[in-house]
Amino acid sequence: MLNMSGIGKSFLGVRVLSGVDLEAQAGEVHAVVGENGAGKSTLMKILAGVHVPDEGTITIDGRTVAFHHPLDAQRAGVAIIYQEFNLLPERSVAENVFVGREPARRGVVDRAAMEAETERLLGELGETGFGPRHRVGALGVAQQQVVEIVKALSIDARIIVMDEPTASLAEHEVELLHTLVRRLQERGIAILYISHRLREVFDLADRVTVLKDGALVATRPITELTTAELVRLMVGRELSDYFPPRATPGEIGDVLLKVADGGNSRLRGIDLELRAGEITGVAGLQGSGRTELAKAVFGAEPFTEGHMTPVRPRTVREAMAAGIGLVTEDRKAEGLALRQSAGDNALLAARATGMRNGKVRELLQRVGLAPPDPEREVRYLSGGNQQKVVLARWLNVKPRVLVFDEPTRGVDVGAKAAIHDLVRDLARDGVAVMMISSELPELIGMSDRIIVLREGRIAGILPAGSSEETIMHLAASHE
Ligand SMILES: Nc1ncnc2c1ncn2[C@@H]1O[C@H](COP(=O)(O)OP(=O)(O)OP(=O)(O)O)[C@@H](O)[C@H]1O
Ligand SMILES: [Mg+2]
Is the Cβ atom of 20 under 6 angstroms away from ligand 1? Predict the structure, then answer.
């Protein structure tokens, strides 16, 4: 159905893709993998008409196409779902599905037709838990993704690109998405699927294409590969899948942060102790209050009830003065100054401590930024590399308490391992770490104990090494 051949692209004289071939058949899930900055998103944006390639050809159903605008690609049946959705939060589901091409009758938008068609498409996807009139801003991330899929279906897309669709989903939502992907597959749609979660690549994909440094490494049927082989193709060397060793009882020290009966509009009855040297994992479904807990501790959405020591911060400034740091999950909205350089961003938090510029490069190297160029504007970095800059910020500040909200989201396998080591090193240096992650294997591998949140409360605290089943059960069960 799709054939991209010899694709090349440079930005401002820097080559980011050269001679890349990619094909997809009807009803195939074709995974595209590779390290941060390998060129995956750029290749997909070329297919979606966002970027025009410098070299190469694209054919769809045997016909050569040339896209100069995303609408050209849409008309040719290509839909792309970005990690940061393109939805209007104040509008309804149906309005979002038909934005820019609303059906009209006698010059007036035909709401009834719009809603009926949206309803029909939602129905095809099975139970989604919302209707055409729901306001999009009130939906969860997973449901917003469903809206994007419905949008793709409504333009009769035959090729759907999903760029890290599960990066912000909780485990049970991932399964829902996989079900939807299989349903699309049955309809003969070709799906190009970018992911850093190798487990789902093996679960879903028929074939996988590996990119490295902008070049094609290999395209293989997934059945011909093991995880270790795929990792080797991606990073060019062996990687152990082990996590750094957990803290021994002797390494765990004083309580550095204590919350008693903490609450606000989203959280209730939070009792929590974070100790020096210990990594406390936080599990929970989307909406269970994980990010809210991080923000409350960091003073961004403060506790309004209960006690907290050393201080119950009313502002971020108060929290930081008390030695509390937060590595945010939403790097676009909260984490980074996109128009500034990587070095400036890394320094934002460090400047206060009088860190010298010469050390910045070293810091960026430690988080695996490639290349560790402090001058590069952050908005031109790939998604995963932006995440590494956020992390670099806190490393040298070394607060007493550091909260990580999804620290490895969108980060490639090699860098993930490096980040895991960094987080453990911080703990070993005496920092009390709290870590939120939707990836249960990561949460289990890293945590010395695991707090499970449910509906804004602590549903239970589990020891290190608890199983995914135990965590999921506690996260989802209702009294
Ligand atoms: N608009 C742009 N201007 C300049 N450079 C860019 C632009 N878009 C991407 N790049 C560069 O192209 C390279 C490939 O980036 P791309 O976003 O395609 O990587 P990726 O494989 O999707 O990585 P990730 O896994 O981190 O999302 C990177 O070096 C990036 O900095
Ligand atoms: Mg990308």
Answer: no
